[in-house]
């Protein structure tokens, strides 16, 4: 199958490699040409997104955010250039209303659309173990399933918008838990407890989690190389709070963690660091 993948950054690059390894013919586009070209798929890196998709059976969009995704799909002609009957899968995290809009535009042209934002970070993308929040109609699900199962575990949530809403719920849990682990480490350290020893002690108890395992380890090792950038975390928190406001929901923990990441990014230049660097933000605040 011919697959066009748009966006070969931290997540898109390993996803492209896994799809190629499963036997698919890959066509790539990235805003920075050199990033896609470094993947060394011969004669398959394109300068324009519409050129990458014009002969594709399936188009996968893995772009930074909602506005960028709409710009590439709609304004730069990707939807128009995708062959009739082709499938477009949006795996980026965007506002739920935006993917409903994408679905309308794509289906109106006689093409298929499937919504499939992911969780699992770079490690999940590399290992093919992403959690995928799928939404769309039955036909799109049927075509998308075998491809997405190469990349991870597909969960079907329902109609358009449901997958993006589930991803936002996921991001609230991730961000709040990162904050809880970081603050717990700082509390214990203030009383003379070693963070690495604390992390090991918590494993297997009620406080254990994937966040404690992976992001807690990053905090102990002070490894801020991004698996998930703090600016991406904030983007998802902003989208989650917008959905909450639309439904008149008061989410106190979500509001606090959004404010924390915003301060880290805007006042402490933390946007490009891994979101586990919330721990570093606590240090910087304490040093003021």
From TrEMBL:
Q: Which residues form the 6-phosphogluconate dehydrogenase NADP-binding domain?
A: 2-153
Q: Which Pfam families match?
A: NAD_binding_11, NAD_binding_2
Q: Name one GO molecular function term.
A: NAD binding
Query: What region holds the 3-hydroxyisobutyrate dehydrogenase-like NAD-binding domain?
Result: 161-279
Q: Answer whether the UniProt record assigns the keyword Lipid metabolism to this protein.
A: no
Q: Which Gene3D superfamilies match?
A: N-(1-d-carboxylethyl)-l-norvaline Dehydrogenase, domain 2, NAD(P)-binding Rossmann-like Domain
Write down the superkingdom of origin: Bacteria
Alphabetized UniProt keyword annotations: NAD, Oxidoreductase
Record's keyword annotation contains NAD: yes
The membrane-spanning stretches of this chain are: none
Quote the catalytic residue positions.
167
The UniProt entry, under InterPro entries, shows: 6-PGluconate_DH-like_C_sf, 6PGD_dom2, 6PGDH_NADP-bd, HIBADH-like_NADP-bd, HIBADH-related, NAD(P)-bd_dom_sf
Which PANTHER family does the annotation name? 3-HYDROXYISOBUTYRATE DEHYDROGENASE-LIKE 1, MITOCHONDRIAL-RELATED (PTHR43060:SF15)
Name it: 2-hydroxy-3-oxopropionate reductase
Q: Which organism is it from?
A: Cohaesibacter celericrescens
Q: What is the phylogenetic placement of the source species in the record? A: Bacteria, Pseudomonadati, Pseudomonadota, Alphaproteobacteria, Hyphomicrobiales
